[in-house]
Amino acid sequence: MKYIVIGLGNFGSTLASRLTTFGHEVFGVDNSLEKAEQFKDRITHTICLDTSKPNAMKNLPIRDTDIVVVAIGEDVGASILTTALLKQNNARQIIGRAINPLHRTVLESIGIETIFNPEELAAEMIAKQLEMQGVLESFDLADDSTILEIKVPERYLGRNAGDLDFEETYGLRLLGIKRFVEEKRIFGLAKKRSTFERNVNEEHIFDTNDILVMMGDMKNFQKMIG
Amino acid sequence: MKYIVIGLGNFGSTLASRLTTFGHEVFGVDNSLEKAEQFKDRITHTICLDTSKPNAMKNLPIRDTDIVVVAIGEDVGASILTTALLKQNNARQIIGRAINPLHRTVLESIGIETIFNPEELAAEMIAKQLEMQGVLESFDLADDSTILEIKVPERYLGRNAGDLDFEETYGLRLLGIKRFVEEKRIFGLAKKRSTFERNVNEEHIFDTNDILVMMGDMKNFQKMIG
Ligand SMILES: Nc1ncnc2c1ncn2[C@@H]1O[C@H](COP(=O)(O)OP(=O)(O)OP(=O)(O)O)[C@@H](O)[C@H]1O
Ligand SMILES: Nc1ncnc2c1ncn2[C@@H]1O[C@H](COP(=O)(O)OP(=O)(O)OP(=O)(O)O)[C@@H](O)[C@H]1O
């Protein structure tokens, strides 16, 4: 594929280099000569150009390019002008970066294929990774059925097992509650021993030592966290 | 879980809001009052505070917090001072954002659990998504075996089938090459018809109409694209 990536900040330069290592032909564009120089060994071609100027477009192989990515961040004006010029020059597919809702609205009105915000995407990703750390153990029974052990979510602490919303909301069945208890032994050495309570009383009040053992489709669990 | 997220830019505010919707108790911190106000309905608590000042730390519930995320971007100095103060105040787990290699090196030397760059993470993600668009069709034979039809990668164009590196590098077997040909019919109406060549000559030269039909473990293919 042939790509043009405009704006070689952290986001644009990483994208352009990655696409280059995947074997594509990538033109990396930036109006800072220093940036164009910095990445010339990691991107197929780099060009120093101010893409917010109409003349700039004739220096880019737009007609042969499959996808143009506008990765300019802070300079919203330059991002919008660049996008408008690309559209005017019949770029086949434009992907644009928006740094705030107004920026996004203007790009939408110009009419481009895809608009994203790198910082928001990364935050979603990291939030989900942090959430998956709550999963202590998982065991696949089948493609559509997994047994999960998860630390009881904060929002259930102090509430009754009867309040649990997992079942209706996510199709996950509570198999029971697992707890670790310390068992004193001969010579006073404490040892952790796990117990599993299969019959969970509706009146049971969740505390921080409760581990919920759930069964259901992993896709539903992922829908719950994401 | 209890979180503190410092810096409510695009990244920090999205992370803090997401964790809040997952049911965690989140303190969102920013030295801009406008930011603290803007997100007060989306984050459990928001506090206006300059966290690069030693006094700031006593206003944060650090001892009860599981994870502190330093999401300050541009102001590298503030990010570093904040991180150092958190470390000094025995924060249990610190996750930090670095906006360039030097910033990352300093945070590493302070000694925190995880360092990331949101723009780079998002670029990796988008590069992979664009790469997966090269997959025209896929059909799962089994958990560890998928048949994939992919447009011939740019880097093979003009080269011999004998040069193909998929097999040794990725354990993907080339089953054959599929092509669409136009077939003239009665009344001159052209119709696309596909053909599949199972015996690929080592001398065959790849061109843009070739579709590679590969078989192998999807995990290996994903390793190929990154
Ligand atoms: N008119 C323009 N033409 C070409 N490139 C431009 C133009 N305006 C800005 N750029 C480039 O876009 C790049 C990214 O923009 P931004 O100002 O957001 O930098 P950044 O904050 O380093 O980016 P990132 O958030 O990706 O790390 C910069 O390298 C900048 O030089
Ligand atoms: N000393 C400080 N104490 C607390 N918050 C701070 C401090 N310095 C900066 N911040 C906040 O950190 C936030 C993120 O920093 P940055 O300057 O990168 O903003 P941004 O570019 O909007 O962020 P993003 O890249 O996440 O969109 C800002 O909202 C800023 O007010």
How would the blueprint of this fold be written?
Two copies of one chain form a homodimer.
Chain A: E1 2-6, H1 10-21, E2 25-30, H2 33-38, E3 45-48, E4 67-70, H3 76-88, E5 94-97, H4 101-110, E6 114-116, H5 118-132, E7 135-142, E8 145-151, H6 166-170, E9 173-184, E10 190-197, E11 211-216, H7 218-225
The complex binds adenosine-5'-triphosphate (ATP) (2 copies).
Question: Main traits of this protein?
Answer:
homodimer, elongated, Rossmann fold, Alpha-Beta Plaits, 6-stranded parallel β-sheet, 30% strand, 5-stranded antiparallel β-sheet, 7 helices, binds adenosine-5'-triphosphate
Structural account:
- The structure is a homodimer of 226-residue chains.
- With 226 residues, chain A is α/β, with parallel strands linked by helices.
- Chain A folds into 2 domains: 118 residues, NAD(P)-binding Rossmann-like Domain (Rossmann fold, 3-Layer(aba) Sandwich); 95 residues, Alpha-Beta Plaits (2-Layer Sandwich).
- Helix content of chain A is 31%, strand content 30%.
- Chain A is built from 7 helices and 11 strands.
- In chain A, the strands form 2 sheets. Chain A has a 6-stranded parallel β-sheet with strand order 3-2-1-4-5-6, with helices on both faces. In chain A, strands 7-8-11-9-10 form a 5-stranded antiparallel β-sheet.
- In chain A, β9 and β10 form a beta hairpin.
- In chain A, α3 runs parallel beside α4.
- The longest helix of chain A has 15 residues.
- The two termini of chain A are 32 Å apart.
- The model of chain A has no long low-confidence stretch (mean pLDDT 89).
- At the A-B interface, α1 and α5 of A face α1 and α5 of B.
- One adenosine-5'-triphosphate binds next to α1 and β2 of chain B.
